[in-house]
Here is the input.
Amino acid sequence: MDSKVEKLVWNTAVQVYGDSLSLIVNEALVGYKRSPGFDELTRLYQGTAGHQALSILTEALNRRWPNYRLAHSAEYVELRFRLRSHLREYLLRRLVLDGAGAPVLMDAHFAGDLGV
Here is the structure.
């Protein structure tokens, strides 16, 4: 997925869901099932997710996996690539199903469904 779309997903989710975004991120984490194999680390930066979303995500990750030493700062949080993709797709799907997705988000969601 394009980084501009990822940024739009996070920013729209913060605007639409506000404080309830924490619950939605928790739901996404509960629904995540890690598949076996190595998965590279990526950094989700504040410039992409925004300060509020990054803070919500960091808190949710610490609650979900309290014994995991999470690499993060005020500027980023490190995530495995598949977890980051799962969160992005979960939020995107939720936005579209709730009717809050801009046309570009709807296009990205349907392209993902079609495997394009």
